[in-house]
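Tokens in:
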């Protein structure tokens, strides 16, 4: 019981994670930073996509749109897990954006040069890979639920990185057209794994 006579149940799932060696507080911090980066990236990718103009830009918009919506899907897939772990999102969106685990993907000054936009997109994806990789490393073999969601997100972030590397270097990649924008073939429904 708490001071207000509220019943606070013992959360066995958290006990198991701690027994497995997971620092739950650090995990919640990493997830909060990761979902903050996904949410802010969604916002910044909206701006970046709108500035992909001209004949070349039109071909890139669809790729940016896929990454943009899938990043929003990553936010939505992992936030329920954050709350299951006893975490929460900051109440003020300014605080949320400030604590995000990746730098803001600002529109570059020379935005008419599509290469400069693609470089910003690539850096954002590479940061996301590092961020979710850290969550995967922390939870592998210790927290199967968080690990599963994070590795699904990471698979899509790795694809996004390959798309933007392909555009910059003309190197072949595994990029393929999604069936619909923001399909999220790996993380769709990851927050609710009942579809598996």
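Residues out:
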């Amino acid at each position: 019981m708490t001071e207000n006579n509220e019943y606070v149940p013992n959360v066995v799932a958290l006990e198991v994670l701690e027994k497995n060696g997971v620092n739950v507080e650090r995990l919640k911090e990493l997830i909060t930073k990761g979902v903050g980066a996904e949410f802010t990236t969604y916002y910044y990718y909206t701006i970046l996509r709108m500035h992909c103009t001209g004949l070349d830009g039109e071909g890139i918009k669809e790729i940016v749109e896929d990454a943009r919506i899938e990043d929003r899907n990553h936010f939505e897939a992992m936030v329920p897990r954050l709350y299951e772990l006893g975490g929460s999102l900051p109440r003020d969106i300014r605080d949320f954006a400030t604590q995000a685990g990746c730098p803001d993907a600002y529109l570059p000054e020379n935005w008419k040069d599509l290469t400069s936009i693609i470089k910003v997109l690539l850096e954002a994806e590479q940061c996301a890979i590092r961020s979710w990789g850290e969550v995967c490393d922390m939870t592998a073999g210790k927290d199967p639920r968080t690990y599963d969601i994070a590795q699904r997100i990471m698979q899509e972030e790795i694809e996004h990185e390959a798309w933007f590397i392909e555009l910059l270097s003309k190197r072949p990649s595994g990029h393929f057209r999604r069936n619909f924008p923001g399909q999220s073939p790996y993380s769709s429904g990851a927050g609710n794994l009942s579809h598996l």
